[in-house]
Amino acid sequence: MSDDIILNPVLEAAKRGYTEQIKEALEQKQGKITDLDPQKNTPLHWAAGGGHYEAVEFLISLGSDVNQANASGDTPLHRSAWKGHAKVSELLVQKGAGPSRLAKNRDGKMPIDLAKATEVKRAVAPPPQETPEDEAFDQEEEDSD
After folding, report:
1. 20 to 30 Å CA-CA from 57: which of 38, 67, 79, 89?
2. pLDDT tens figures, 7-27
3. Domain boundaries, the chain
4. CATH fold group of domain 9-144
5. How many Cβ atoms from other residues are within 10 Å of residue 6's Cβ?
6. Contact between 19 and 25 (Cβ < 8 Å)
7. Contact 58, 20 (CB under 8 A)
8. pLDDT in tens, 43-77
9. CA nearest to 18, candidates 53, 45, 42
10. Are 97 and 77 a contacting pair, CB within 8 Å?
């Protein structure tokens, strides 16, 4: 996301993590939480990519879609993982971005593929998949009890 894009007040405040300005801009009807920039980034994409925890939390509380993809196929979770924001990534997953952990962007990358720091990788790691062999083993364990 380029920093030289001119955005409406809601997108601009989200980009900078100014939660109070987001509130004011929304109250003054200077934008919506569903507004998109030219690359189809929402205010939540901008706040998540900037690591702005409070702004992310506020936007989610208003109903921002935590799984919405932009023009590149990136979700807010992709943005926070790529920028190394573990706490924001954890918040997104807690607030419903679980499906985004498996979402691939246009380059075929999941959030874990973009994460560099270990704590971010932990936050965005897809849930472990149970194999049919695991299920059969579990059934054998139950049968032997």
Report:
1. 38
2. 899 999 999 999 999 999 999
3. 9-144
4. 1.25.40
5. 8
6. no
7. no
8. 999 999 999 999 999 999 999 999 999 999 999 99
9. 53
10. yes
